[in-house]
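Researcher: Let's continue the batch. This sequence belongs to DUF2789 domain-containing protein, and it's 76 residues. Same format as the previous ones, please.
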Amino acid sequence: METFNHNLSSLFSQLGLNSSNEFIESFLNDHHLEQHEQLSEANFWQPSQKRFIKESQDQDADWCEVIDQLDALLRK
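Model: Same format as before. Here are the structure tokens for DUF2789 domain-containing protein:
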């Protein structure tokens, strides 16, 4: 069985975003989720990014842990 060690940098790269620590920090400062807002429905994502997040969560894919981490960071 293949195991993956995804982190925020690899998730941002997968989403087609800059994966530098500086960009990620800026993104987290500039974007926030409302209490009941789903990460995959946030208005700052492109349709393909929303689809990737939603499908990963629905399929309990290996990206889920880091997606959950991003969700938590956007709620602070």
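Researcher: Any comment?
Model: The helical segments are 8-14, 21-30, 47-58, 64-73.
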